[in-house]
Amino acid sequence: MCKLLGGKWIDCSGGTGKNVGRINPLQVNPLPKITDFEDDEEEEYISKKSALGLHLDFLSTFFKLYYPEITSLQMSLLMEILEELYKNFNITYDTDITNIDSNKFPIMEDLYELLLKKVNSNIEHKREIEEIRAVVRELSIGHHGEIFNGYTSLDLDSSFICLDVYSLQGASEKVKRCQYFNILRYCQDQAFKNREERCYVVCDEAYLLVDRKVPQTIEFLRNFCKRARKYECGLMTITQSLVDFLAPEVKMYGQALLDNSTYKFFFGIDRKRFRGSSKSI
User: Fold this and answer.
1) Does a structural domain hold residue 1?
2) For residue 81, is it within any domain?
3) Chunked in runs of 10, what are the mean pLDDT values of the chain (281 residues)?
4) The pTM of the whole model exceeds 0.90
């Protein structure tokens, strides 16, 4: 379809090549103006939010997906170290990152190098930081670095773009979920940039975003669905099973996603599973 429509196909599974693209998880993207008061010229009702603060929320979920065993203490330490990392790149909670080039943001290797220093300097929490360092090593100079380590390099000069992760089929669930979440966050940022430009985001294999231990991923998808209409954006989610979206741990978000759908199509549903889910549809 992409080829027939003259679109652009980008492989987001890592590696090298003409069609390979990378999305830097550490790149902070500009925030769209979020307000329901479009005629308020003095911006009296427009809240000012921190791009870095919201991005750290994204990174918190990202690292939980990759390292489910992370403790509350380790997460707090990681957020503190990330704050220091961004400060080293002249990015704070007050920084306007609208015009910052993609190669001016830190990458995973920069985070790894800072963690190496922290392991030796923070005696009190050396053990906790050492575990974080080992995890980030995989994402930077380790075997998953080709996916997550590097500057954002996507060429979006097309009206039809396919971000493909097919080559990650053999990867672990945590890697697939992290990259899918990373891609979806990037797509939302791009879709919400311009309220005047209509766009449509299609999320195939959306079940990859459902993690019962990390409900923030499907919460993100739910929020994307609810906000998209304000930005002339449509969202389509495709999944193999409704059961994943209606599990008790995530049902409040999965149900809202179904309720907000204008159209629902069901193909070849297992009757036994459908009976259990039909009341929620």
Assistant:
1) no
2) yes
3) 89 87 96 55 56 96 96 98 98 94 98 97 94 98 96 91 90 94 93 88 89 89 90 91 86 90 82 58 59
4) no
